Amino acid sequence: MSIVKMKRLRLIGLQSERDTLLQQLQHLGCVEIAQPDGPADDPEWAALARPDTQAAAQAREVESALESALATLKKYAPEKTGLFQARPQVTEGQLFDQAAYDTALAAAEQANEAERRMAGIRADQNKLRGQKATLQPWLELDVPLDVASTKDVTILLGGVGATAPWETLTAEAAAATDDLVQLTKAGKDKELQYLLLVCHKRAEEAAIQALKPYGFTRANLRGWTGTAAENNRKLDAEIARLDQELAETTKGISTLAGQRDGIRLALDRIRQEIQRESSKERLLETGTAYYLDGWFPASEQAKLEKVLNSFSCAWESADPTPEEYPVVPVQLKNNAFSRPMNMVTEMYSLPAYDGLDPNPLMAPFFILFYGIMMADMGYGLIMMIASLVVLKKAKPRGTMLYMFSLLGQCGVSTFIMGALTGGFFGDFIPQILKIINPASTFEMPALFTPLNDTLAILIGSLVLGFIQVIAGMIISFVKQTQDGHFLDALFNEGSWWVIFLGAGLAIGGIGSIGGIPVVLAIGGVMLVIGCLRQTPSIAVLGTLIGAIYNGVTGVFQDVLSYSRLMALMLSGSIIASVFNTLGSITGNVIAFVIISLIGNALNFILNILGCFVHDLRLQCLEYFGKFYKDGGKPFKPLAINTKFVDIMKEE
Question: Per-residue pLDDT tens for 368-389?
Answer without folding.
Answer: 999 999 999 999 999 999 999 9
